[in-house]
Design a protein that fits this description.
By secondary structure, the protein is mostly beta strands. Helix content is about 0%, strand content about 30%. The protein binds zinc ion. The site of zinc ion (ZN) has 8 residues, from loops.
Length: about 80
């Protein structure tokens, strides 16, 4: 089990075909899966997605933190991102 800090969404990189999950309850993660990693807010460290599989947490998965309202994205492999 690892804890992965998500990162900010940069201007212009939000794809049109995705949605942003809103965390209603700061004490309850938006997603809960069966993978090895927990994902936390880049600003306040709040738990946003628990026990997730890294292959699921792509650029399309965005979560707005219920505690600080920061929109987080879960890309961890920057090198895989094509240059535009
Ligand atoms: Zn936060």
């Amino acid at each position: 089990m690892a804890t992965i800090t998500m990162r900010h969404v940069r201007d212009g990189e939000v794809p049109r075909d995705g949605g942003t999950a809103i965390q209603d309850d700061p004490d309850r993660p938006v997603f809960r899966g069966n993978g090895p990693d927990d994902y936390v807010c880049v600003e306040c460290g709040n738990l946003l997605a628990a026990s997730m599989d890294g292959t699921y947490m792509t650029k399309k998965v965005r979560v707005r933190c219920g505690r600080c309202s920061t929109v987080n994205v879960a890309i961890t492999d920057e090198s895989a991102r094509p240059r535009l």
